[in-house]
Amino acid sequence: MTPKKEVYLVIGGSGFVGRHIVEHLLARGDVVSVFDIVQRHHDVDFYSGDITDESRLLEVFTKTGTTCIIHTASPPHGAKDPSIYYKVNVDGCKAVISAAQAAGVQKLVYTSSAGVVFDGGDVVNLDERAPFPEKSFDAYNDSKAQGEKLILEANGKGGLLTVALRPAGIFGEGDRQMMVGLYQAYQRGQTHFQVGDNNNLFDYTYVGNLARAHLIAADKLSSPPFTSSSQETLTTDSLKAA
Ligand code: NAD
Prior knowledge:
single chain, alpha/beta, six-stranded parallel sheet, 7 helices
């Protein structure tokens, strides 16, 4: 039997990270559509919708025959009303999981955040075994942690396999948050002050590597009958070469 080809849907595919994932999928010849509240690109099929609308998600998953969802959508950090984070990142994840299970989607890759283990204190050499902090740094990080928990708890349920990735500050082509924020700090004259003794470290992730990590995570979520056009082994060397 010829293996069935994966059909990808990138939720939040009009955004910074989502767009890079779409480009990586297109570059290796995969079938991909975008689900988002706004359309910014016109080279793939686009489905307008809000992830808190479960019936719309179900309609789109079914219509596209999606086998693998890559869910990158979130409100940006810094919203005035924190309730938007819980609505999109917690209720939205619930709706994505439920609609995916109802539509028979096999894989769900979630863009979480390194902030899920941040409580404002130093974070040194933590890995994914570290527990969530008792109190999150803010509502954004708390909602991302709750969303990640839901996604991981759904693994193996209703025919769905799930995985979550935790990038730190993301930089690269198309960034509309990080460099803008740094530049605004410069414009406000806030770069005249130094916080700490020049030994502070922060973790940054290049968006192209992150996009590739999403594809590798999706590929590794299952063995046949589903294959992608570019299966590869996840090793430190393959990530370094990205
Ligand atoms: P972005 O704002 O550029 O893209 C997010 C996309 O999601 C946008 O196109 C937006 O329209 C869409 N979206 C938002 N709410 C939606 C909803 N209710 N329904 C459907 N679509 C919706 O953000 P980004 O920088 O690409 O971030 C992608 C993911 O990476 C997010 O989940 C974010 O939490 C995570 N993350 C980002 C950073 C960073 O530095 N940018 C760091 C760590 C984690």
